[in-house]
């Protein structure tokens, strides 16, 4: 696993000339993820992930679609439906790897919600891409 992560990191950092940056609005996983979340479809989100996917958040590291589904289910309960907005700022396809970065925001009831940044790494699996890693941050609220 470490060698895969190292290889992917070097691939992204090296940004070879044949990597193709695409229009961020054309990076489909962002809209699929957002739409499923806003419909309360944690199972639909979990289906986007590879079996060995890892999600890194400010509070934990979890592995596998089932654990990710549980985390998303809890987030949907906390934030409510129709609360997530994802904005892709960059999306790059480099052969069997697609990566994207952006911002997220939820408009939740008092005490819930938040905003931050995310990085998503997908790997081609057959005719589709599957999420291998999602890392996201939580921006602290402004000081009072």
Topology:
Elements: H1 2-14, E1 20-22, H2 28-38, H3 42-46, E2 49-56, E3 61-63, H4 65-79, E4 84-94, E5 97-106, E6 114-125, E7 128-136
Parallel strand pairs: 2-7
Antiparallel strand pairs: 1-4, 2-3, 4-5, 5-6, 6-7
Compact summary:
31% of the residues lie in helices and 39% in strands.
The CATH architecture classification is Roll
Domain tally: 1
Structural class call reads alpha+beta
Q: How is the biggest beta sheet arranged?
A: 7 strands, mixed
Point out poorly predicted stretches.
Answer: 3-17
Secondary structure: helix percent: 25-40%
> What is the number of helical segments per DSSP (H or I, 4+ residues)?
4
Description:
The protein has helices at 2-14, 28-38, 42-46, 65-79, and strands spanning 20-22, 49-56, 61-63, 84-94, 97-106, 114-125, 128-136. The chain has 144 residues and is an alpha+beta fold.
């Amino acid at each position: 696993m470490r060698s895969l992560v190292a290889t992917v990191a070097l691939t992204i950092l090296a940004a070879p000339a044949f990597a193709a940056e695409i229009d961020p609005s054309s990076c489909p996983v962002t809209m699929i993820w957002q739409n499923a979340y806003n419909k309360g479809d944690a199972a639909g989100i979990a289906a986007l992930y590879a079996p060995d996917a890892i999600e890194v958040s400010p509070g934990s590291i979890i592995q596998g679609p089932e654990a990710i589904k549980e985390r998303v289910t809890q987030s949907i309960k906390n934030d409510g439906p129709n609360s997530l907005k994802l904005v892709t700022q960059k999306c790059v396809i480099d052969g069997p790897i697609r990566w994207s970065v952006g911002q997220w925001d939820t408009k939740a009831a008092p005490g819930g919600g938040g905003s931050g940044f995310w990085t998503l790494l997908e790997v081609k699996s057959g005719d589709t891409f599957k999420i291998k890693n999602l890392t996201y941050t939580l921006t602290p609220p402004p000081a009072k």
